[in-house]
Amino acid sequence: MEGWQRAFVLHGRPYSETSLLLDLFSENYGRIRVLAKGARGKRSSLKGALQPFTPLLVRWGGRGEVKTLRGAEPISLALPLSGLTLYCGLYVNELLSRVLEQETAFTDLFFDYLYCIQALAAVTGSPEPALRRFELAMLGHLGYGVDFLHCAGSGEEVADDMTYVYREEKGFIASLVIGNSTFTGRQLRALESRTFPDIDTLRAAKRFTRIALKPYLGGKPLKSQELFRQFVPKKRPDVLPDEE
Q: Is it the case that residue 135 has pLDDT exceeding 70?
């Protein structure tokens, strides 16, 4: 690649005595794995910069699956995530690391990610709406197209007080049976608009994104979910970005 790219560190781990192996999310190249040689050394200028949630300008080179980091400069200070919002940010990072193929451009998703992290940094209430909006945006960019506003069986517009069951690859079909995969028309309208005015629509959004993300994540649990369970009291499961 040529020139500098805007990017964020999604995940990093030590490699050899002084280097780091990093997953980056870049604006024009998507997820990239790079080796930052000497980044952990005592005299390295990169030591404090290559951290999650720090906006970066980066350059890399190489032809293999793992590139070599040629340069990195922080654009600004790290976005201030702490406590619950820090765990939310780690969850979003792990989602991207698990779901995105390497070296596949997701420029629009890059900005959705930036907006999500900024929203988490500025949140004064629940971080859940920001997480749900990001998950829905990511699913859309992955090609997971769902018509929330029409019944897949009849083609008619959903009615607020009707119940619809979700069928993968088909959509929402009117149903008299209520279960984990059923949603009211009002909840579906909230999913379409990505606005969640109350706890009912917010919980419905969480149920839907868990269903929709499952094929991408497989049976392997997210490490960030375990951190959430340790950090958040069991009496507040509604703030977790996962279902028990």
A: yes
